[in-house]
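Marked as duplicate of an earlier ticket. Keeping the data here for the record.
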Amino acid sequence: MEYLDSKHRKIGEMSEKQLQEITAKAQVTKEKKPESFKLYHTPSKKEKEGIKEEEKVKIKPIKKKKFVLSGVNLTERMMFMDNMSTMLKAGLALSPALKTIAKETKNKYFKEVVESLARHVENGQVLSKGMKAYPKVFSEMITATIEVGESTGMLADSFGHLAEILKAEKKLRSKVISALMYPSIVLVALIGVSAFLAFFVFPQLVGMFESAGVNLPFVLKAVQAINHFFAANGWYTLGGTIVAIFLLRMLFRLPGPKLRLHMFWIKVPFVGNLIKELSLTRFAGNLNALLAAGLAIVGAMEIVAKTVGNLQYRYVILDMGKELEKGTSLGRAMASRPKLFPSLTIQLCEVGETTGELENILKKISTFYEERVDNVLTNLSATLEPVLLLLVGVAVGFIAVSVIGPMYELTNTFAN
């Protein structure tokens, strides 16, 4: 048998054993690939899964130990979403965008979180899974919206939707704070002045009146009794008050008592209407954003329920999601709960479901109730101002009358 080498030249005859050895060496050389081959080799699914599992072990969430007092506020999260949407729409890749934001972030803890997300993305993992490692920074609504944006290829739009939601929430929160600022300052000042008079001014007057033999009015006697009580049991009272506040806070963190407290607040005339409209604003706005991002309505209801502050609305929305999963329409589910959902909201949702414009209808509902809340908060200071002035006037007059009477008797005593 004649064999040819690689240059097609004849070589001598070989035995079968030699031929098997040459064939075995060739097979080994074929199976042993050069190092440069690894740079171009596409790993199999098992190899990819193995690589990802190793990387998942290496990348650990940043624990908030060094920065105990730090946190990520609403403004920082809003700016993060807005900047990410802008950069992704401009064509910047996800990892460079995260690194750019990390460089401009002043919050040390949030900066480390964003840098961790950038490393997470660079290692081939999706952003939403990295965000789930920081539930106190990125809520379930944020991670679900980002996950939908990744699956649909509309990540920039998802960031834009989240930025709009957080902007609306920040705007509403600022209005609530500004509306309650003036009444809070007046009440704190009134309580502070009353405490100063009761503990520092009235005791001296009481001593002077008693030494002169003047009959004390009921108010000064009550102040005197309170001062004696605090002088004898002040530390016990302070410690008991702190313990009581701590126990009440622990109690109302439990689901049952907290739910009853939230149900009670809804029944309060003015406060209850405001809570309802705030809950409806958040419910309709967040549900609209999640549906616009491409999330199914059943999953969206479960996420929206966790964004509503009132527990009664939260549990009701979760129950409505279960009913929707069984085939019930949103309008019908809302109609069975008329105390929480007004007839106007129910009718609009039924029209939206019939016409296929539920997303636009939810946005209109959110805008409608947001304007109502805005008007209430705008007029709140103007409404409370005369009430507070009347309260201050009554308090000052009561104190003045309580002091002027004994002073008049003391003056007559000195005159006689």
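See parent ticket for discussion. Strands lie at 3-4, 10-11.
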